[in-house]
Predict the structure.
Amino acid sequence: MPIQTENLHIDALRLLPAPADLATLLPRDQAISRTVSDSRAAIRAILSGADHRLLVIVGPCSIHDPDAALDYAAHLARERHRLSDRLEIVMRTYFEKPRTTVGWKGLINDPHLDGSDRIEDGLPAARRLLLEINRLGLPTATEFLDPILPQYFADLIAWGAIGARTTESQIHRQLASGLSCPVGFKNGTDGGVQVALDAIRSAAGAHSFPAITAEGRAAIASTTGNHACHLVLRGGHDGPNYSPAHIESISLAAAQTGIDPGIVIDASHANSGKDPARQPAVIADIATRISAGENRIRGVMLESNLVAGRQDPVAGQPPIYGQSITDGCLGWDDTQALLRRLAEVAQSRQPLAA
């Protein structure tokens, strides 16, 4: 009897549709394509300093209820339209959640919130929601975690993030080098920034690595490099890392490696002590500095939802509508006030000299 050496810990293998098949089932139209393309171009211009506006990535910590997310998107789309001359507002639509140990892994992995891990249901749910949000004229942002899944929805994403846990990963740097959207690398969980600056340089280069095609075939992807990668500051173990001294030292380190970091500040996570109610104070500090002429900060991130705070799902009970089941978020009224404050300070900004 042959000795089995493969799949010793695999309980089951379920087939997924090819990315092209899902895109055929749930296609984007010209208007959606224009929303994605125009926002990517605007983000690149803001990150380079050519556009005086501020980039604002704002939305739920994670999406668990597509209906509530679309409701939130309708509110945000109105603010985007109202403030578009000063802000490039992009909705945070995070479908994958990195876990330190175990926990809910996001809408794609567990769309039914019951541990059934029906990824075959989660992927179409995520793509359908992205289509609906972009159809409102509101571009979307997400964190890329699994290197295979972007083939299913990256055509609908205007801005992507590589998280603090994966910024150092060669696989994710290679992935970013081939993505069509601007990509923000977060500093490491310890607060260290050099790892993200190294990632930006790496992702700007050409790479070849294993991937899948739109038809679901194994292939080698050869990339030309992504020159719209930049730095996202999210704090670290020692606390916030967006002070004037931090910005100065980061800018010097970036200059020594020959890059413009295009700094985006995440007002949540360690920069707010993981307290969502402190995000307005972070934004107030940033706004004051921008008003005083700070032009190295090109954007901000906010965790926001219809209802403030967070909740733990309870078996047999529906979650509170519009409230996060992962990190706590600001409520809508506070979010709207912050967006309008950011628009006020962005009005005085000038494009950097060519």
